[in-house]
Amino acid sequence: MQQELTSSQTVGIVDNTWDDPDRRAPLVLGGKDFTAVTDTVAALAFRRPPLGWYICFGLALALLGLLGITVLYLFSTGVGVWGNNQPVSWAFDIVNFVFWVGIGHAGTLISAILFLFRQNWRTSINRFAEGMTIFAVICAGMFPAIHVGRPWLAYWLGPIPNQMGMWPQFRSPLLWDVFAVSTYATVSTLFWYVGMLPDLATLRDRATGRIRQFVYGVLSLGWTGSARHWHRFEKAYLLLAALATPLVLSVHSVVSFDFATSQLPGWHTTIFPPYFVAGAVFGGFAMVLTLAIPARQFLGLRDLITLRHLENMSKILLGTGLIVAYAYGTEIFMAWYSGQHYEQFAFVNRYFGPYSKAAWLMVFCNVVAPQVLWFKKVRTDPWLLLAVAMCVNVGMWFERFVIIVTSLHRDFLPSSWAMYCPTWVDLGMLAGSFGLFFTLFLLFIRFLPIVAMAEVKTVMPEAHGHSGPGGTSTPDERKFDYQPDEGEMQPQMHADVRG
Amino acid sequence: MKSTGEPPLALKMKATDTDNPAVLDSKRRTYAMLGEFTNVDSLLAACRAVRKAGYTRWDAHSPFPIHGIDSAMGTRQTILPWLVLGAGLGGALLGIALPWYTNAVEYPYYISGKPLMSTPAFVPVIFELAVLFSALTAVFGMILLNGMPMLYNPLLSSERFRRVTSDRFFVVIGADDRLYDAQATETLLRSLGAVHVETVED
Fold it and tell me: Is the ipTM value over 0.95, yes or no?
């Protein structure tokens, strides 16, 4: 029979990564009960942030300023300020776009797919993973908008009647991208906001200042935790998860169509959609770990984001990393097996041509480095894990660089070959996009509930009937974590039973 | 409206009311009675009992969704999934109509000899619009069916009720319930294990 620890029994446990199926691992440690969970998370939104926050925020703002300057320079001068040329007409702009869109996917995976699979550990990390998704999609959406050359005409991308009497071309994957990414941004934001409603109400009820009471009051829409509201809330949340799951798979598939539907060797492959989705989840989980490890350390969230959470994430990192490694291998195999001259050249050139350093860096960071995650020692050591995650962040950016630049710079005709070199504006925009991302993220951890308090409480043993302090639990009843709800299936019968 | 030169009635009333607290108080009426519980079990038991006692205008409030409370309270299934299904189908229809009208009818695009209505190429847009409309309906449908945004709620005037978003559980029985009786309802809530009972006024 499975034993479940009540919250008071979790004092002193640091390592909850045991694999013994007889002892259910607690997901909230430190003896925290409902009150303590609220206090821990809500305090972060109300207290004066530590000095480190101001330093990070200052750095992020400086990079954001750099983004502003480079974007202004780009708009006032033209895309010639970039290193893009013919034939490398897509470069950092699209590399950064794919990189940031991919980052976002881990957030949706945690909030939607792990929700459908009833992975309870997701509750501690889903809020800021979703936040990360939205900020990453904002960074991503910026690049296609500014790379169109005349951004004030970017509205031509949408199906809006205009004076030319022309419509967008719906057979183009670039247009699918417009629909996919804008739908993804909208649905992610809705998902994030809906999940946050109950927690915003918590902040409203604890806020002391008039301004905060008003702002949290308006944002929480008058949520009072009514059971009848929870009923619809849970239904809406389940529906959103079920909708976001195919959506997230479609978004990176559509992004990969931008490449796969072209004729270019190195791009024109059917493996791209699953390869891109796996890569996106891989890169996204690395970013979640990059944010989660410092956050739990410096914000005092070690009892909520436990070692078990980190270990689970690193297992997903390892698993998706293996899929990515398999995809690299398949690409090379297919190039050889196809017997196609241009395809074979594209891959020889990729790994042994002028950009081979980037390609081998990608292989080292994405294939070799994650292998240390086979060892539990590494999976449960936050700082080693952070080092692996940083490797993957770098590797996934270089993956997109390698796919885009090495395929474009030497295509069919040697007479059209050219090299690509980024300018300071390219590099400034890449750094600046990190500034935008971290500015938004730091504001988020300053003012909003960064852990889904209501959801974390549902995975604590006290949240279920028949257990917890004052509960009428018997050891027999406790083994059922999930109690089937007879009333939902047979309302008539349940009325008889309950009278 | 005709102007009579006199101040409107409402303004006159207000002036006298604020001068006289007794008048003000008489205008306030009881909105609901709150029973506070400290754990999930006693809340579930209370919900079953309140329902059995025949109350109809009542609710339970908790910091998180509680499994099994729907059957304890007799909550009916929401129609939200049907609304979402309808919206999703509507979105898909729009996703078919938009490329068809713009690329095959209004401005025919001949691209590499493909048919004007290239259904496979339109699938991504059809799918995305179906998801977009469903998701918007799921969220705004939930919010509107829940009667939100509700920026004024008499319950929030209770200091103790504010813990409902942290660690306390409440059964709220509306004063407009036909079984509501200040004495009997309070006795019922206390007998069910409420650690605190109070009324809020509107």
Answer: no
